[in-house]
Write a structure and sequence with these properties.
- Helix content is 18%, strand content 43%.
- It is an alpha+beta fold and 455 residues long.
- The chain folds into five domains: 34-70; 71-143, Sandwich (Immunoglobulin-like); 172-247, PDZ domain (Pdz3 Domain, Roll), CATH 2.30.42.10; 254-346, no CATH class; 352-453, Thrombin, subunit H (Beta Barrel).
- Strands 9-18-19-24-23-20 form a six-stranded antiparallel β-barrel. It has a six-stranded antiparallel beta barrel with strand order 26-27-28-32-31-30.
- The longest helix is centred in the first third of the chain and has 37 residues, at 34-70.
- It starts with a helix and ends with a helix.
- It holds the Pfam family Peptidase_S55.
Amino acid sequence: MEKKDVVKKRNPENCMQNSAASLPHAPSSVFPTHAAGKKRKPCLRKILAFWILMAVLGGAGGWIYQTWQKIPSSIRIRAGEEQELFLDVPVSGTIYGEKTAQKDVIPVNLNRPLTVQASQIQDYTMDVKLFGIVPFKQVDVHVVEGQRLIPAGVPVGIYIKTEGILVIAESDFEGLDHSRKEPARYLLRAGDYILKVDGVELEGKKQFTEQVAASEGKELCLTICRDGQTFDVTVTPQQNTEGVYKLGIWIRDNAQGVGTMTYLDEKNGFGALGHGINDTDTADLMEVQSGSLYKTKIVNIRKGISGTPGELTGVIDYKKENRIGAISINSVEGIFGTLSQEEADEIQGEALPVGLKQEVKKGEAQILSCLEEDGAPQLYTIEIKALHLDHDNINRGIEIQVTDERLLEKTGGIVQGMSGSPILQNGKIIGAVTHVFVNDPTRGYGIFIENMLSH
């Protein structure tokens, strides 16, 4: 009984007060009272509500962006044919032409299959609204003639000569007095094209190097093309330790390599690569003065593995008799030009209709590529995994994965040199292979054929 009288229940609040009393200098915030806890709960609710709102807005923003990408900025429709357009997006609007009367404005709803037909070549505009309310996007609609192309799939050797001399880097060098010399510092930069020296057009880097060496240290007037703008700069060459006059720049006037021809049209015009030829140092699209296609033979295949892309190795003999075509255009969509009649006659295969981007479907497709020395192009099975109708990078509109065991055995998937291999689906030519995933060589990207034809 006495023990029970001694041991008494203690009030938790008293414990708190006693503890606080033992530390008279402790700030009251260290030991919050019940009232302070009540004040903190509304603050936590506000923070939680804020983050929930941010998550909702982020999700909504992502959905809107994906919806935007599902709607191409431009759509092509073949004249005289009924075609189905189904984008499965919650937008509706109208289609009208430049001279369309109000009564001829056509309502559209892209949330369900839409059958369209145009009888003549003409351009239209489609204005669409999200949920039929919020102005969302303007789409250019082009009515075009139906076109047929012969899928090529043959390897070609490529040689291009730049428009002028390309500056790929600045550098310094040791002068006669053993000090560092930088004659072109702040005057020239990587990506510049040197077109003329003292008003004389350049034919190649050898000529340019000789003119600089023969300058005897006198000022040279260089005509430069930079970002599409042409202007003159003056620069004074200086001697290196061997007494040779230099400017302190690295230059290039050509590029070469192996790729695949995508198609041949009825006028012997060809398209190849599906992407442009960029300088390896500046990463800029090279401005082409002239170029040639040459016969090539595939002599080796390095299989691709995760982290290391594979490669087709071809032998190119740059003899005149091996030249099979002329390159006239180097653009982001590929390289284009004209094939010789003799070589065009050797391209076998039936001309196929062009598949427009809205006709391309996810699922099985084929690529046409040649992997054997003196062999004919073969069809290999792939799967289209995703479609990006309005991708910022037009060379990556089609996402593909190699499924053909023969191709996987030979190459491991997509390898360098296969760029330009035509992609076929449902009896139509729909695109060309352009890129490989570095970490998964079985997967890669392709460009829509209509984008190649728009160059």
